Structures
1.
Amino acid sequence: MSDLGTILTAIVTPFDARSRVNEEAFVALMRHLADNGSDGFVVAGTTGEAPTLSDEEQLALVELAVAERPEGKTIVAGTGTNDTREAVLLTERAGELGVDAVLVVTPYYNRPSRLGLLRHYEAVAAATDKPTILYNIPSRTGTNMPPDLLAELAQIDGIAGVKQANPSELQLIDGLDVYAGDDATFARTLDMGGAGGICVASHLVGHEMRRMVEEPDQRAEIDASLRDVYETLFMTASPTCTKAALNMLGHEAGGLRLPLVQATDEEEAAVRAMLQRHGLLAGAPA
């Protein structure tokens, strides 16, 4: 798991004017992020708008990422759904396409029991020889995996890590590499000896986040300076503001698929102000 890297960017999925996946823009963005602090990429995760990608689009994007990955960078495929059969199929196929690991979110909406979660992850982990990273995000799924359940899941062959997006239960788990699931807990995760973060702000401030890894004595100060970035990017449903920021910076991130909508004028103004505060708009299109 340590080979996956410390900063894994949950990369957005660019769309063209007809709301089709913009493969050229995706590859260009992946290369840009590779040059700006990212160790690897989570493809077709929440930030990648996986809920509105078809299985065919999702797997084609994973295949593209593997084929075009910058040298030395890792690819993690989001393969979780609330249907175990579909999650198994996506996980199996992603493994065959050559990803380095899979990220599997807690089944959403149907809110399985503890035993259901165990059986779900047993089935998914058995579908691949790649490491499986659990994804705990109760704010989106309605189901929390507490630390004792994570420790039990760690005993399943193939389960190697967790993306923890429940800040109140962020702690080391025996047998799992712990990744911050929120940018705001990245520094705290590093401080406690976690593996790193699956990040969104690294689309914009990857160098500063890399400094947080490499300059631990400056970590708290850097983290404090980036708080407004984290807050602005998540002022509404992600990746709305991230795509707005990328478009302002000249990247072809495109729009979003319904039910997500583009940033409002007020949200765009807040994003632009944040970019200006951090000196990111110099030389970018107006």
Note: The chain has a mean pLDDT of 97.
2.
Amino acid sequence: MEKHVLTIFAHPDDAETSAGGTLLTWAAAGARITLCIITDGDKGTADPTDRREQVIARRRQEQERAATRLGAQVLWLGYEDGLLQPTLQLRRDLVRVIRTVRPNLVMTHDPTVWFRHGVYINHPDHRAAGQAVLEAIYPAVKKPLAFPELLEEGLQPHVVEEVWLALTDHPDTFVDITGVLEEKLALIGAHASQFPPEPTRLAFTHFARETGERAGMEAAEGFRVLRQARQTVQAFADRLR
């Protein structure tokens, strides 16, 4: 079966920074990749003279350039950056996306993460996005009576087989990105308004080496992976066989 990956992250650049090496590896192996970005990243500037429309246009261009490197399609939901909440409206929008794309793997933020590396407070949009995605995947995506208006749109229930949580404090699955680390850095570099070259290379090389050390690899990305079945009890039974 062809791997069809749907990433759902809060901002432009989240997929590339969180899992760029993994996505590059999967793309090279023939996976189909769709990037869903919930917000437009319109707060992504330190220049008070920037207008919101300018920031949105710049970040969309950067995201499209990065997607081209992955051979990926980009979907935009257009929520406002910095104000994201796991609302029922967002859940419905995410169910619509997942039922439309029908991926066998969804990747998103781990909503339980608050701090990273002793210097970073996890963006509240990241936590809100991760929570909303998980609440969309279970049970709403696979239940026909959840958001019945989506059935009227022709969007049938769907089971996401694997959910990969990125930048997690509890990784149980590691992907070797040694051979694509330079490509990952270039992928992040497509988001030039957010990532100056020298500190970006230093930081993300360190993160990859640090994660790789945990996994016995030169460079790696780590994830917390959940596996689903059409019936949850069946998923538990399958793990015991």
Note: The radius of gyration is 18 Å.
3.
Amino acid sequence: MGQVRHGSATTTHAVRAAIQRSQASLATLSRELGINPKTVAKWRKRATVEDLKTGPKAPHSTTLTEAEEAMVVAFRRHTLLPLDDCLYALQPSLPHLTRSALHRCLQRHGISRLPDVEGDKPKRQRFKRYPIGFFHIDIAEVQTAEGKLYLFVGIDRTSKFAVPAGRQGR
């Protein structure tokens, strides 16, 4: 299987390994290999020949607070609604929430994809039929660094319309 390199890569795994094994000076190696001496120095001080991951070391939201992010995650886990349905249900409570911010938040927490319908969960029983307007209300407690956060979710049993509301605990 071949090595996948990004467009501006100047070295391969073999070249990087040769740089790490070589006792020659940085200037000599850079002339021989036709690469920048800084590149030679970088690969010489690394213990591996693999590229490092780019991007932030500890990704976080720039638009959502920690409490808001916890509310989004708890809502998704509790309702298992698709992305757009989560967005429309959460926007009244979080007006600055965008679709992309919601998606990035769900990706960070590993819940951007809904589980398979025929997954490893036990089969759920169907709700009893109710007239439109009958709401089922659930409460989820979320622990954050700022304290407890309570997420109240009202779900219309007939239309599956969900309404979230968050409250900071004491």
Note: DSSP finds six helices and three strands in the chain.
4.
Amino acid sequence: MNSRLAAWAVRLFGVMLMLSCLGYAAVRAPDRSLESLIPRWAPPPSEFIELNGQVVHLRDEGPRGDPLPLVLLHGTASSLHTWEGWVAELKKTHRVVTVDLPGFGLTGPSADGDYRDEAYQAFVLALMDRLQLQRVVLGGNSLGGLIAWEVAARHPERVGALVLVDAGGYAIQPEPVPGGFQVARAGGLLARLGKYVLPRSFVERSVRNVYGDPSRVTGALVDRYFEMTLREGNREALGRRMAQSRPGDHADEIRTVRQPTLILWGARDHLVPIAAARAFARDIPESRLVTFETLGHVPQEEDPAATVAPVRSFLDNFNIET
């Protein structure tokens, strides 16, 4: 009896080990090289430039004679692709620059591992200098919005106007926190495991959580977020960014912004709730707030046609000294 029980236990252990191996194989997600991602995610007009020791992925579209180009910055764990709907419309009449920020997209991890707000501000200014953009309309979503208003506040001579889309800046706790952010913040064994294991379904849930209407999330969209996350070094970079981030530390500077500012917000944003939109509108004197009742944290991506309309009006119907 004991021998039969022991044999059964051995077989059971073998089955469990096999299932564990199969489960690991199903969710194993090793890093992907930049070269392997370029064919699908960086067709023309994508280009790569060297900037302060780092290869940077960007797109520079529209008429070069535009006296006040538009520079758009994406959010955490996103990429320049989030602006494609806007760019398709705006590039008809405006020069539009989109870029993958250090730590994200095809640009990949920062050369020096610095992901503080100040490092991102310096990156934006260096990019403008490299492209010979003396003054721009600076726009951004989430983290990109945070960087945009910080640059405007600290270097007002370089920013003629702002477009803030569900921007960061205030010390407001998101509810719920997306799963990817939770893993990045966790550190320790969980974060280390996240460098090798990443179920695509986990990324899909995270994307659906930031959309106001999850039915808008397509397979191709999930592919993009998934593969950008797997870009070599990006998972570790996200963890470092979360560790170095200090939400709300510079919120008092928002009141110093004096540029004309368009504030766009998805009313179903649970990551940066609508209360933050009202705070921006209160604290920036030259601002206008437009909300979208059915959209979430990335309204420019979720419904480009509806959200680009007030941007076009904003750019075309006020006078900015160049």
Note: The two ends are 90 Å apart (CA to CA).
